Amino acid sequence: MSSKCPPLDEGDAEEAAVSKMSTGLLTIDLAAIAGNYEMLCAAASGAEVAAVVKADAYGCGAHLIAPMLYKKGCRTFFVATLSEAIDLRKVLPDARIFILDGLFPGCSPTYSRYRLMPVIGSLPMLHEWSRFCQSNSTFSACALHVDTGMNRLGLGTEELLHLFANKKQSLQGVDVKLLISHLACADDPGHEQNDRQLELFARLVQQAGDIPASLANSAGVFLGRQYHFDLVRPGIALYGGRAIKNKANPARPVISLSSPIIQVRTVKKGTGIGYGSSFVTRRQTRLATLPVGYADGYFRSLGTGNTTRESSAGQGAGVFIGEYEAPVAGRISMDLVTIDVTDIPADLARVGQKAELLGSHISIDDLADRAGTIGYEILTSLGHRFQRRYKEAG
Ligand SMILES: *Cc1c(COP(=O)(O)O)cnc(C)c1O
Does the C-beta of 181 come closer than 6 Å to ligand 1? Predict the structure, then answer.
């Protein structure tokens, strides 16, 4: 292999160049996302399956994922903010786009211009939208969000019932396309709050006339048919994450991340490694360094103190080199991580060799468990220094 940097756009040369030049290669499998969308459609018992693509499709790239899902038949998309929605409109000229954070004050004309639907969760928001719509009749679509137990966003149930009882005045000029609520505990199917929220929401839906209804996120899809209503709003399951705790994950993995070893060294027993020398070797140790750190979303909580190789979960992450696991040794730095490659064949533990940080051996949920967080946070923290490669949906 030549030591010169090949240009970045030369097909197979690209991957080699990328692994040499960047902190790592992040591969996003669009075919897997498409497969997960199909899986959710099959699980949703005929309800419309929308896609939640907030936070840049959970860090995976909304500008490519949303059009791919549209091609697969998805017609309704949810984002969090107005600027996310405007970006999405540029790649989805015809889709329905809902903004979960609602109506940002003073921005009604922008919603109208781009045909973006606020998910209205308070009376002041509703009044602002209604006033705007009455003076501008071209676009008046929105959703209403009612709080059924999350206590985060949404109209109170009394407020909603009052609106329905006085539809003529309170919803004047406004075209309500959807009534939504959000489950607080859907990842735990045995949690009693699921039934309570379902019961309350079903009662409110009965008062809503013919307004379509939506309650389920990814986890809600798997709680059963009665949770589906007219439309379901999965996010994490599209991106391969675990929706339900302590259960086999039916979603296909989407993300893999590899990073090349940039240095290998051997140190004596009793040597301190990294910041704070928190890890002290218990034997002669071969170490390898990868150019990935907490600035790339490889969380600092994945580092180790002085632990044995048999250490349990929560005691630091590992990476895979071929079929061999190499544990993290010491703290995670901003840009670097050191791994213990003593037990890995020397021909694999060499500079330029790729280590798997996420992939067939380590899922986003495995890594999240090690870091003390959830797959959602791993995904949305994936760094911007990685080279990104998208595997086409075909
Ligand atoms: C983020 C979000 C979703 C998607 O949740 P997942 O758990 O990722 O499926 C659905 N509805 C609302 C209101 C949300 O904020």
Answer: no
